[in-house]
Amino acid sequence: MRAIEAILDAARWAPSGDNTQTWQFDILADDRVRIHGFDTRDWCVYDLDGHASQLALGALLETLRIAASAHGLRAEWTRRAATADNHLMIDVVLTPDPGLGADERRPYIESRSVQRRAMGSAALSAAEKAELEAAAVPCRVIWFEALPARASIARLNFDSAEIRLTIPEAYRTHSTIIEWGARFSEDRIPEVAVGVDPATARLMRFVLASWRRVEFFNRWLMGTLVPRLQLDLIPGLACSGHAYLVMPSPPVTVDDYVAAGQCMQRFWLTVEKLGMQSQPEMTPLIFARYVRENRPFTDLPAGRQGAAGIADRLAALLGPEALARATWACRIGRRRALPGRSLRKPLSALLR
Ligand SMILES: Cc1cc2nc3c(=O)[nH]c(=O)nc-3n(C[C@H](O)[C@H](O)[C@H](O)COP(=O)(O)O)c2cc1C
User: Fold this and answer.
1) Are 100 and 66 within 8 A, CB to CB?
2) Closest ligand 1 atom number to CA of residue 13
3) Is the pLDDT of residue 241 over 80?
4) Which of 126, 132, 217, 222 is the most buried (most CB within 10 A)?
5) CA separation for the pair 255, 37 (Å, rounded)
6) Are 25 and 35 spatial neighbours (Cβ–Cβ below 8 Å)?
7) Whether residue 222 has pLDDT greater than 80
8) Atom 26 in ligand 1: which residue has the minimum CA distance?
9) pLDDT of residue 220
């Protein structure tokens, strides 16, 4: 395998929303690749203006940069101006640099994974926090660690998930992104990585087969309660803390989101290097942005009201200034075994 192929083979392990892998690679020469970045805004309510996909693209570029460093190659890129926002093009050039050491996060690219279940909750040490904060620069990290602070975020995520699980606009995503019965999935989230117990997974599979079933379970049988307990409340308490990454100024352009994605991936790989795991908790931030921009994201009035409440609570927790600049939210905890995980499409399927 040529170095450029080995580097792209590693880069494709970058995380993307629901494992959508919204990118393709066009290898132009041994030292040059054009990356095409797409988004899912047309069908995914969580990909507001393509921002989630742009964060993932930033994570991809950062992963590429780290992988290239282990080959003694410096990766530099320019984004082509004047392409559509939902079809970005980034030209990457690799240049030999004998002085460049391998980035110490390289060994964690392939093993980094979400952990949606409860993690160990031993407190973060001052040294661990300092290393994580250094990895996130230029983002600042706002921590929620002590039990009452952890509980506020767990509660926020628990309430935000009720919106997520009751609005029809999110159903299309939820009903297509899980590979049921699977431990591993190349292009979706396998059932065991969803983070619920097997009985709940069976019920979710049945319910998500039609929107009418979802409505019935939600209306009469408190259908959202058990998933929210298992996915938000319990693991939100059983962790070392929650972290919000805040940019120096409010993100506006595609490049701002790509840069934020680079910070996020450095942070996440550093979590893994420290022997911990992380789990994104993005929906409150996304709902808060819809509210701030006064954009109705659902036809369901209760969903819009709920989002307004989430935005107010998040503004109180972070401060309105930091909320407008926050680009990433996650929890961190001590490592627990993973029963399965998302894999990736093979490199050959991503080449143009
Ligand atoms: C921008 C972005 C947003 C994400 N938001 C969430 C989220 O809100 N909830 C969640 O469970 N996972 C979230 N994820 C995690 C992805 O689902 C996960 O990275 C993907 O399925 C691949 O799995 P892996 O990270 O274990 O390789 C997000 C990932 C990215 C890159």
Assistant:
1) no
2) 27
3) yes
4) 132
5) 12
6) yes
7) no
8) 113
9) 80
Ligand 1 centroid to Cα of residue 114, in Å, is 7
Residues framing ligand 1 (Cβ under 6 A):
15-19, 52, 55-56, 59, 113-114, 116, 189, 280-283, 341-342
Closest approach atom of ligand 1 to CA 51: 1
Ligand 1 centre to CA of 279 (Å) is 8
Ligand 1 atom nearest to 283, measured from its CA = 8
Q: Report yes or no: 14 and 250 within 8 Å, Cβ to Cβ.
A: no
Q: Which CATH architecture has domain 126-181+223-338?
A: 3-Layer(aba) Sandwich (3.40)
Spacing, Cα 136 to ligand 1 middle (Å):
18
Q: Which atom of ligand 1 is nearest to the CA of 18?
A: 17
Phi, psi of 246 (to 5 degrees): -120, 125
* pLDDT tens digits for range 123-141: 999 999 999 999 999 999 9
User: Where in the chain are the domains?
Assistant: 3-111, 126-181+223-338
Percent of the chain with pLDDT over 70: 100
pLDDT at 227: 93
Answer whether 3-111 and 126-181+223-338 agree in fold: yes
Measured distance CA(42)–CA(44) in Å, rounded: 6
219 has pLDDT over 90: no
Name which CATH class applies to 3-111.
Answer: alpha beta
pLDDT over threshold 80, residue 247: yes
Instruction: For the full predicted model, state whether its pTM sits above 0.70.
Output: yes
Per residue in 4-23, pLDDT (tens digit) is 999 999 999 999 999 999 99
User: What DSSP element (H or E) covers 50?
Assistant: none
